[in-house]
Specification:
CATH architecture of the largest domain in chain B: 3-Layer(aba) Sandwich
Distance between the termini of chain B: 18 Å
Strand order of the largest sheet of chain B: 6-5-11-8-9
Number of domains of chain B: 3
Number of strands of chain B: 11
Strand order of the largest sheet of chain A: 15-14-20-19-18-16-17
Structural class of chain B: alpha/beta
Strand content of chain A: 15-25%
CATH class of the largest domain in chain B: Alpha Beta
Shape of chain A: elongated
Radius of gyration of chain A: 27 Å
CATH topology of the largest domain in chain A: Rossmann fold
Number of helices of chain A: 12
CATH class of the largest domain in chain A: Alpha Beta
Number of strands of chain A: 22
Distance between the termini of chain A: 66 Å
Number of helices of chain B: 16
Strand content of chain B: 5-15%
CATH topology of the largest domain in chain B: Rossmann fold
Radius of gyration of chain B: 22 Å
Shape of chain B: globular
Largest sheet of chain B: 5 strands, mixed
CATH superfamily of the largest domain in chain B: NADH-ubiquinone oxidoreductase 51kDa subunit
Oligomer: heterodimer
Chain lengths: 480, 434
């Protein structure tokens, strides 16, 4: 049964829904700056006005984000009056906005830009100078604020009040001199979710210092991925250079570098947010990579190393595997299939909380800093690594293993992605690919499976662990 | 004399604001009567029957506001007296606070009883020094005498009052901005719905009434709605405290019975215009009401219907008389500077529009105006009409549109000739009446 009407069409609304929520759910478009589905209603940008038809005549306009649906009400989202009001509002919003899209990082994904073309599209009629305000105000080490671009929608303020709960941003002064500022105690700098304000800023006022002037967003492609920073497994988009905009001369490294990481909305896992660690995945994945297979520190071809490893496994009496908790479900399956019966497997925590890092909170961050511990334990049990006197071979998969704690005299096969001193100490070392070079999925702490795609191609000298296990097992299987 | 007196009905002396003097005038007897012999509903009914209109500016019927609150719905209710008298030209509440603070407090107690309020608040503007000291002293006296606190007059009714000093923001005089300010936040007005009588202070049903409105209550309950209705007109019963300033010989606060002839008030009661000048314009109730010309004033009587008919409104009763020779362009410049300065900056049309209008009028005065500026001012005013969170955007628009509608020639003259048509003065020569 229809509850009310949008542009003459019957629309069903849930109890306590606003016109904005009901209209968006029913597929109608209403523009908005300050409204955000995950934040409280501020109702200050006034762009979401809709016309309410009064049966007695005399329609009026009201903001959709704060208007509860009432039975039988008739709303127009794109009438002449509405378009006129939106045009006026845009004129006001742009009055003191610098319109410096040419040098603004947000250009291309800026709602103000989009709505301007949709509703206004004309030059300013103002003859007076714009109000000037601070440029490049450092809110923290990570976020830089351009007060001239700011349209004072207060989304960032509400984010720190309602989501990260640090109450670290506020609005200073009043009128058209109002300024978004960090609260005095510097809480914004220590807010582990601070970078979300960059995404929710509808204009280019809040900018990432890491990404500042790095690339135009239309040269970038977003590949769906999963943050491996903790067992929450937040869904993210990894932005990297589009293949068709490949850089040849300028800085070819950028073709295979992570430009930025943004949250990908998943209501079951992370909502529309991620923490700052997730933004810095490049710091994890772009550490110096191991690209050379080795036998006791001596460089060999990949095939030779694989062969040596296979023979070691074949000949071992009591081999043990330390399984990576950073591996994907697919890699676990491949390992299980190929070597599960041959080796006694334990789950290893690849990463532990780093000094200064927030270990756990009730927003997103979980204490286990590995993405796939849950699935790993389901397959290989929760027991801590244990060696017996008979253990003669250890297959170490991934980081986080202190070789000094391995039994003396055992042979070690080491699979790792990054340069590390241990690589040369292993009897066999095989470099493996990282998450951004392969597709797969992780099971997070709550059992939700999120999948990720490959952003870049791996180097030929590096192996995909998933394929490697089958090659390590070929002979052993025949013997068994 | 300006008709019947309801609030200013006692001689002001050095001690007339004290509890002893107030008691001698029958103070707190009404409270005792209410607490011991009336039900909360009876009070609300009496106030509704009186037809009392809000005196803060919007003239909303007081009884209808109170009736939204159900005293026994199991949640706390709040009463808040709006003493943040910030509308330029208005200083009538100040008289009540300075000379009849106990009248306000008794009325607040009676109102609290009617709406089931345990904690009441007075939000007083920060610039008020003497009024604040008088009110706080009166509250202390009332506490000592047992009119506030637990089990007043031995009944089950308990009530406290908190006097909260604002920091001088115009927007905090708006009811929801005021409540937000009491809550300790930046004084941003709130979107409606929900109305404040549904979710107000600390998200509880709250009645916010102007000081003068509340000051009427004790009399209405004491002497009955019928007596109150005998004053004024059928649609505007009672009286209004008018604070008149500007170019009149005797500025000050006058209690004017509704229906009183406006011209008589200005030319007789206020001693006429300063220096014998002609009345050029009259801002009838704070600068947010539309300006009237001297000719408009002649046939008007001081009541809502008469002023509405003239395209203006009574507003807060803050009247500003403007004599011939005053430059209306510069006057509007002063007003727009005020609105620009006081816009809270929360919603777009007002935040940007006030500054824009201010810059345009500054440019006109600087001799750099262009003919389109007049239309631009009107367009910005219209863009603010009904699109802002609180009424301030609309009010500034009304004021601007009113000035341009009545004195367009002065604006056009300044734009064309780059100087004022009337000499550019805001003050006129004359001697103030002793």
């Amino acid at each position: 049964m229809p509850d009310f009407f949008i542009n003459g069409q019957p629309v069903h609304a849930e109890r306590d829904q606003t016109v904005m929520q009901a209209a968006l759910a029913a597929g109608f478009f209403i523009p908005y700056f300050c409204w955000h589905p995950n934040l409280s209603v501020a109702g200050n940008c006034r762009i979401c006005v809709v016309e309410v038809e009064d049966p007695k005549g005399g329609n009026w306009v009201e903001i959709a984000c704060n208007m509860p649906v009432s039975e039988g009400m008739r709303v127009l989202t794109d009438s002449d009056q509405v378009r006129e009001r939106r045009k006026e509002t845009l004129q006001m919003i742009l009055l003191n906005h610098p319109v410096d899209c040419g040098i603004c990082d947000k250009a291309g994904e800026c709602t103000l830009q989009d709505y301007h073309y949709q509703y206004y599209g004309a030059r300013s009629v103002s003859l007076d100078a714009k109000v000037h305000a601070t440029k490049f105000h450092p809110l923290s080490e990570r976020v830089v604020l351009d007060n001239e671009r700011c349209i004072l929608c207060s989304r960032c303020v509400r984010f720190t009040n309602e989501v990260s709960k640090t109450h670290s941003l506020g609005i200073q002064l009043r009128g058209d001199h109002s300024l978004v500022r960090a609260s005095e105690d510097g809480a914004f700098a220590s807010d582990p979710y601070s970078d979300n304000v960059i995404d929710i800023c509808p204009v280019g006022a809040l900018l990432s210092k890491n990404f500042l002037y790095k690339s135009r967003v239309w040269y970038l492609k977003a590949t769906p991925s999963v943050c491996p920073g903790c067992e929450r497994g937040c869904n993210v988009d990894v932005w990297h250079r589009k293949p068709e905009w490949k850089l040849n001369a300028l800085d070819p490294k950028q073709n295979s570098a992570i430009a930025r990481v943004t949250p990908r909305e998943n209501a079951q896992v992370n909502g529309p947010w991620i923490c700052n660690k997730g933004r810095d995945l490049a710091q994890i994945f772009e550490r110096p990579r191991a690209e050379q297979s080795m036998l006791k520190g001596k460089a060999v071809e990949l095939a030779a190393a694989v062969d040596a490893a296979r023979r070691l496994i074949e000949g071992a009496k009591k081999p043990v595997a330390l399984v990576s908790s950073w591996a994907s479900n697919e890699e676990f399956a491949a390992f299980q299939r190929a070597l599960g019966e041959r080796l006694v497997s334990f789950v290893k925590a690849d990463w532990l909380p780093q000094p200064g890092e927030r270990v756990e909170d009730d927003v997103l961050i979980k204490a286990d800093k590995n993405p796939n511990t849950r699935r790993a334990r389901e397959l290989f049990g929760p027991a801590l690594p244990a060696f017996t006197a008979e253990t003669d071979l250890v297959l170490v998969w991934g980081e986080g293993c202190n070789f000094a704690e391995l039994p003396r005299g055992v042979k070690v096969i080491y699979l790792n992605s990054y340069l590390a001193p241990e690589n040369g100490h292993a009897d066999v070392f095989i470099p493996i690919s990282v998450q951004t070079e392969r597709a797969g999925s992780y099971t997070n702490f709550a059992g939700t499976v999120s999948s990720f795609s490959a952003c870049f191609a791996k180097k030929p000298a590096v192996a995909h662990a998933q394929e490697l296990f089958a090659r390590l097992a070929t002979q052993s299987k025949v013997v068994a | 004399m300006t008709g019947a007196k309801w609030i200013m009905n006692f001689p002001v002396t050095a001690t007339s604001h004290s509890l002893a003097d107030y008691r001698a005038r029958g103070g707190y007897e009404t409270l005792q009567k209410v607490l011991t012999s009336m039900k909360p509903d009876d009070v609300t009914k009496e106030v509704t029957a009186s037809g009392l209109l809000g005196h803060g500016g919007a003239a909303f019927p007081v009884g209808r506001k109170w009736a939204v609150i159900k005293p026994n719905d199991g949640q706390p209710h709040h009463l808040c007296a709006n003493a943040d008298e910030g509308e330029p030209g208005t200083f009538k509440d100040r008289w009540v606070l300075e000379h009849a603070p106990h009248l306000l407090l008794e009325s607040m107690l009676i109102t609290s009883y009617a709406i089931g309020c345990r904690h009441s608040f007075v939000y007083i503007r920060g610039e008020f020094d003497l009024p604040y000291r008088r009110l706080q002293a009166a509250a202390d006296e009332a506490y000592e005498a047992g009119y506030f606190g637990e089990r007043i007059f031995g009944t089950d009714f308990s009530c406290d009052v908190f006097v909260y000093r604002g920091a001088g923001s115009y927007v905090c005089g708006e009811a929801s901005g005021l409540l937000t300010s009491i809550e300790g936040k930046k004084g941003y007005p709130r979107n409606r719905p929900p109305r404040l009588t549904v979710k107000g202070l600390y998200q509880r049903p709250t009645v916010v009434n102007n000081v003068e409105t509340l000051a009427n209550i004790t009399g209405i309950v004491a002497r009955g709605a019928e007596t109150f209705r005998k004053m004024g007109t059928a649609k505007s019963p009672g009286t209004q405290l008018v604070s008149i300033s500007g170019h009149v010989n005797k500025p000050g606060v006058y209690e004017v019975e509704y229906g009183y002839p406006l011209a008589k008030f200005i030319y007789e009661d206020c001693g006429g215009m300063l220096g014998g000048n002609k009345l050029k314009a009259l801002i009838p109730g704070g600068i947010s009401t539309k300006v009237l010309t001297g000719d408009d004033v002649a046939p008007l009587t001081y009541d809502h219907a008469s002023f509405d008919g003239a395209g203006s409104s009574l507003g807060s009763g803050g009247m500003i008389a403007i004599a011939d020779g005053t430059c209306m362009v510069r006057l509007l410049q002063v007003m727009l500077r005020f609105y620009h300065h006081e816009s809270c900056g929360q919603c777009t049309p007002c935040r940007e529009g006030m500054g824009w209008m201010h810059r345009i009028i500054d440019r006109i005065v600087a001799g750099k105006g262009v003919p389109e500026d007049i239309e631009r001012l009107i367009a910005i005013s219209n863009a603010n009409d009904g699109t802002t969170i609180c009424g301030m955007g609309d009010a500034a628009g009304y004021a601007t549109v009113g000035f341009i509608a009545k004195f367009r020639d002065e604006f056009e003259y300044w734009i064309e000739h780059k100087r004022s048509k009337v000499g550019g003065a805001l003050e006129v020569q004359g001697t103030w009446h002793a």
